[in-house]
């Protein structure tokens, strides 16, 4: 009988008695600092990480897909969802409402999957109040205000008046950096992506996230 050769790069399998509850990874930044680009790359590289899809009242942008990028709803529907307690967090940003549906996030965490959030400081504060134990927060800063404006204009998504409005709000948004667990200055996108991956790897290994670890160590000490 031929035995199948194991891959030299096979993953280490956790003991069956130990499992991990998922975590919520938040990336926040002023518009244009790079969090969306970082989010997309992290999702491509981390198979156990899924994106939290927010509901919003803003109009769909070119190339966006309903249900994948956002759940696009009207203001009446959004308010009904608030009243029914269906959001983990919600906020008004630049005249539009954004919110994180509760049910799919809680289902993912219970199954040991990690959930990525691309939200602002207002939403992060609400998550801290509602789910601090599951939360890991990262704030992305631009290397300079000049570079921030250059990036906003380079993506060509917004007219000049909207770019100006985003730039005027940036100082207030950046003032919330001390509220976050980690801060990354996004000088070079590759280095920033690697930093977020390092944070994610370390947080996954935290003792308190490994359910059943105490009983497993006890069995090891007993010679099992």
On the 0-100 scale, what is the average pLDDT? 88
Percent strand equals 15-25%
What do we call the CATH homologous superfamily of the domain at 19-52 and 114-221?
Answer: P-loop containing nucleotide triphosphate hydrolases
Biggest β-sheet: strands ordered side by side in the sheet: 3-8-2-9-10
**Any idea what the radius of gyration is?**
20 Å
Mind summarizing the main beta sheet? 5 strands, parallel
Distance between the termini: 31 Å
CATH class of the domain at 19-52 and 114-221: Alpha Beta
Describe the fold and architecture.
- It is a single chain.
- α1 packs across α7.
- The chain contains eight helices and eleven strands.
- It has a domain at 19-52 and 114-221: Rossmann fold (3-Layer(aba) Sandwich).
- Residues 4-10 have low confidence and may be disordered.
- 40% of the residues lie in helices and 21% in strands.
């Amino acid at each position: 009988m031929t035995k199948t050769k194991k891959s030299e790069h096979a993953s280490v399998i956790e003991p069956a008695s130990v499992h991990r509850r998922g975590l919520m990874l938040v990336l926040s930044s002023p518009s244009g600092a790079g969090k969306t680009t970082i989010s997309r790359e992290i999702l491509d590289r981390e198979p156990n990480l899924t994106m939290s899809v927010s509901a919003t009242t803003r109009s769909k942008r070119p190339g966006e897909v309903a249900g994948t990028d956002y759940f696009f709803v009207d203001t009446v529907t959004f308010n009904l969802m608030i009243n029914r307690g269906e959001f983990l967090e919600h906020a008004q940003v630049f005249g539009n409402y954004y919110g994180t549906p509760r049910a799919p996030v809680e289902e993912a965490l219970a199954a040991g999957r990690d959930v990525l959030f691309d939200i602002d400081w207002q939403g992060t504060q609400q998550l801290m109040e509602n789910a601090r134990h599951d939360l890991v927060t990262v704030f992305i800063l631009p290397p300079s205000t000049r570079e921030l404006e250059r990036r906003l204009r380079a993506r060509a998504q917004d007219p000049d008046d909207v770019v100006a409005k985003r730039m005027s709000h940036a100082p207030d948004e950046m003032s919330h950096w001390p509220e976050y667990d980690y801060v990354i200055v996004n000088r070079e996108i590759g280095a920033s992506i690697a930093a977020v991956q390092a944070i994610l790897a370390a947080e996954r290994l935290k003792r308190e996230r490994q359910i059943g670890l105490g009983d497993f160590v006890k069995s090891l000490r007993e010679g099992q």
